[in-house]
Design a protein that fits this description.
- This protein has helices at 6-32, 34-44, 48-60, 66-80, 101-108, 112-132; strands spanning 83-88, 92-99, 137-141, 152-158.
- The chain is α+β, with helices and mostly antiparallel strands.
- Strands 1-2-4-3 form a four-stranded antiparallel beta sheet.
- The radius of gyration is 17 Å and the shape is globular.
- The termini are far apart.
């Protein structure tokens, strides 16, 4: 039996995870059309992030709150192969994504025409759920690679009334 390094194992599971996401979407789209596939995709991406966030909290011993979210979310982004940097703010933090592996896969498959539609829905759903799993935290998007911007801007901040927020 061959021995794989931790990096090789990570790459194997990352590629499998990405492949199954794209394959099931394309198969549902073939059978039921794009709108049905997108609706099911959104349903999946409102449940899977709960599982991911709760698992990350448990295995990493993360606390509720903006600091726990910061640690968990940045670990997820790293595991999934995003290129990003983060900036702490008075009310939370902002993530600047310079390369999104999900967008890369859409481009590689020649389906740029669906990138913005899928990205708008799924990114919002996924990050909103991650934020909610760590407490009274809101999520909003700024720039987006899927609509032609150079980076994605993901903003996480305390909800109004829970230690203030930039949007009170």
């Amino acid at each position: 039996m061959i021995e794989l390094s931790d990096l090789q194992k990570k790459e194997y599971f990352k590629r499998s995870y990405q492949a199954v996401d794209g394959l099931w979407f394309m198969k549902v789209e073939e059978m039921h059309g794009f709108e049905a596939a997108l609706e099911l995709d959104e349903s999946v991406w409102t449940v899977l992030p709960k599982i991911q966030a709760r698992t990350m909290k448990a295995i990493a011993g993360l606390n509720e709150g903006i600091d726990g979210l910061y640690e968990g979310l940045t670990a997820r982004l790293d595991l999934e192969g995003f290129d990003f940097r983060c900036q702490r703010t008075e009310y939370g933090f902002e993530v600047f994504v310079s390369r999104c592996p999900w967008h890369d896969l859409i481009v590689k498959s020649g389906r740029e025409n669906i990138g913005e539609t899928v990205g708008n829905l799924i990114c919002r759903a996924e990050n909103t759920v991650w934020a909610s799993e760590f407490g009274e935290i809101s999520f909003k998007r700024g720039s987006r690679i899927c609509r032609g911007d150079a980076t994605c801007s993901l903003v996480f901040y305390q909800k109004a009334g829970s230690l203030g927020s930039p949007h009170e």
